[in-house]
Write a structure and sequence with these properties.
The two termini are about 30 Å apart. This protein has two domains: about 130 residues, Endonuclease Iii, domain 2, CATH 1.10.1670.10; about 110 residues, Orthogonal Bundle (Endonuclease III, domain 1). Helix 2 crosses helix 3 and helix 2 packs across helix 8. With about 280 residues, it is mainly alpha-helical. The protein binds iron/sulfur cluster. Iron/sulfur cluster binds next to helix 9 and helix 12.
């Protein structure tokens, strides 16, 4: 089935997941689907790698393969991510523009009162918290490096660059990988709540897999050079189709590979909540 085709109801005949799952083991309980959870053994890893490649291909077919437009400015990207939290894309862009209008350099922002930064980004919500976080990051950078630069990240191995970023106040593994992906084009795979949900429902990771392990395991399964498109398209898929409640399994382009969705359409799985919540 191509990604452009709608999957429709559960496929008839031999179960589609037999093709990518050489064995089945119940990992969660009797009411939940079989597992191809990655990172357990070589057989599981091989099956998961095949599954993930097909998921990426189907999502590219459904939403289009995405190209990364790098800005080469990791500190700008980091501040932009902070401004986007619990905020719409349009509003966070407006906040960033207003912040840069009032404080053309990050040195200007560091020298400003936190209340003035808060005022510049007020329309995006959580303005006080975000203003304090931005100031704390700028202060941390200046104290540790003597300048407000993150450009040296591009020279570091990926794991070292992630470690450097998570030393900044309020920066976790997802945000660190987003900065590396969007600003510098690193071939990393940040996982947000949508991607965690999809990966769990597809059986790629077990429920409650720790964040750092999930980033490593799922990122390693995605073909090289495809992680940006996979990230953007999985977020889109989680927002529009594989929603926390009432996922649209009957029209999902991944139904062929999703035992969870197939069980759900057969009323064998109840989805009334987000498994990450
Ligand atoms: S749970 Fe449903 S919507 Fe989500 S990936 Fe599976 S089939 Fe698609």
């Amino acid at each position: 089935m191509s990604g452009r085709q709608r999957a429709g109801r559960r496929p008839s005949g031999p179960r589609a997941w037999d093709e990518v799952a050489p064995s089945e083991t119940s990992r969660i309980g009797p009411a939940l689907p079989p597992s191809r959870t990655a990172g357990e053994d070589e057989t599981g890893d091989a099956a998961a790698r095949t599954l993930v490649r097909r998921v990426v291909e189907n999502l590219d077919g459904e939403y289009g393969a995405k190209r990364n437009r790098l800005n080469g400015k990791p500190l700008d990207t980091l501040v932009g991510i902070i401004l986007s939290q619990q905020n719409s894309s349009a509003s966070s862009h407006a906040c960033f523009s207003e912040l840069k209008r009032r404080f053309p350099t990050w040195e200007d922002a560091l020298a400003a009162d936190v209340g003035d930064i808060e005022d510049a980004i007020r329309r995006g919500g959580l303005a006080r918290i975000k203003a304090e976080r931005i100031k704390a990051i700028l202060r941390n950078l200046l104290d540790r490096h003597g300048s407000l630069e993150l450009a040296g990240l591009a020279e570091l191995p990926t794991d070292d660059a992630v470690a450097e970023l998570v030393r900044l106040p309020g920066v976790g593994p997802k945000t660190a990988r987003c900065v590396l992906l969007f600003a510098l084009g690193a071939d990393v795979f940040p996982m947000d709540v949508h991607i965690f949900r999809i990966a769990e429902r597809l059986g790629i990771i077990a429920p409650k897999t720790p964040d750092e392990r999930a980033h490593r395991v799922v990122g390693a399964l995605i073909p090289d050079g495809r992680r940006y498109s996979a990230h953007v398209n999985m977020v889109e898929h989680g927002r529009t189709t594989c929603r926390p409640t009432a996922p649209k399994c009957d029209t999902c382009c991944l139904l062929e590979y999703c035992v969870f969705g197939q069980y759900r359409l057969d009323d064998l799985v109840d989805v009334t909540h987000d498994p990450r919540s």
